[in-house]
């Protein structure tokens, strides 16, 4: 069987792949090998040889926030946050609270929900003709188009609730089920089954599971690689290959039990089980599984781009699992008419969503990548398409960033754009600025050609 080490004709890359027979296997981070600059294919300069790639993830929750509880002030360890953001208090030095950003086309659209949600990441006009589903390509998919070829999976579009095909107020609920759009007329395929995501990551990026020996297919490349890396990395590579052999043996055993366990390439033992084939029925467990898979995808360098919808627009999710929340669906809680009891329950759902984001931060901050954390080399965004959900308010959006983007983003700050004029507070200016940090430079995106000031 013929195998090849990717880019064998030139020096090996620290983050490389062992390939063979249709399998592309991400290697662990090897300190003794150089890094290739993702946008040029050339060897990186000495100043960046130790830098992992930058990752981007957007965590979305539907139907806005309770405005009086969504605020932040101060800086760094002295930052204060409102009740809606309390789960992020421990991470205040890792976040940037943004106020006042908006999408003009969302404000102008007459559909209070479906015209103000699918354009969250594009700023595009949403067609109200039910025979012409049309939005605009979203920034995550622009990233996938430009840099997705560096990973086995160009991007992940994940969610908790299924894509709906029914009509709502004469419009397709595809609009309410998709924040990631591969093109103006095609949403990215959203996956809500954790097991399928796991298989996508552990396989070859096209859904193939590790169901036979990978080591036999890549052994030649591994032997070649051992000759060009340092002693410490040889031990790491041996442990890595041994962990894969262990996983294969587990798969062989688990196949008889209809249970598989997962793995990460930088660990000697897998640290999460393959999720059950069935869709999880416990909402918190489902969300945590999906977020764990985002971490797994980034840690394996299977993708560097992910979106996750914690719920759909017009969500029918029931939050009865939260203490003090009962008798109402999420949509009813957000459209509360300022009823004090419903407002209190709405706040709890906001806190729950932010808690999921905080969980992702905590997981990523605990993963060391050469002296700095995975979070340090990531840009995470927690957001909703509306501000005051009860009023369908789209003239500003709740947005919190986290992570330092490899040193390109100063955190522990509050940035308020409300009084800077519409041209200086466009969400697409933020997206241009974030894409710059991912080495994707566009002259214009959505409704602006300006980068976001002070970011």
SSE blueprint and pairings:
Layout: E1 3-5, E2 17-20, E3 23-26, E4 55-60, E5 72-73, E6 80-81, E7 95-99, H1 104-108, H2 139-147, E8 156-159, E9 167-168, E10 171-172, H3 174-177, E11 181-183, E12 186-187, H4 194-202, H5 215-226, H6 231-254, H7 283-299, E13 305-309, H8 330-334, H9 340-365, E14 378-383, E15 399-402, E16 413-416, H10 427-437
Parallel strand pairs: 4-13, 4-14, 7-16, 8-13
Antiparallel strand pairs: 1-2, 2-3, 5-6, 7-15, 9-10, 11-12, 14-15
Helix pairs in contact: 4-7, 7-9
Describe the structure.
With 455 residues, the chain is α/β, with parallel strands linked by helices. The protein has a domain at 52-192 and 279-437: Alkaline Phosphatase, subunit A, CATH 3.40.720. It is built from ten helices and 16 strands. The protein has helices at 104-108, 139-147, 174-177, 194-202, 215-226, 231-254, 283-299, 330-334, 340-365, 427-437; strands at 3-5, 17-20, 23-26, 55-60, 72-73, 80-81, 95-99, 156-159, 167-168, 171-172, 181-183, 186-187, 305-309, 378-383, 399-402, 413-416. The protein has a seven-stranded mixed beta sheet with strand order 8-13-4-14-15-7-16, with helices on both faces. Strands 1-2-3 form a three-stranded antiparallel beta sheet. Strands 5-6 form a two-stranded antiparallel sheet. A hairpin with a 2-residue loop joins strand 2 (17-20) and strand 3 (23-26). Helix 4 runs parallel beside helix 7 and helix 7 packs parallel to helix 9 (340-365). The longest helix has 26 residues, at 340-365. The protein is globular. The relative contact order is 0.20. The model is unreliable at 1-11, 36-47, 207-213 and 253-270 (pLDDT under 50).
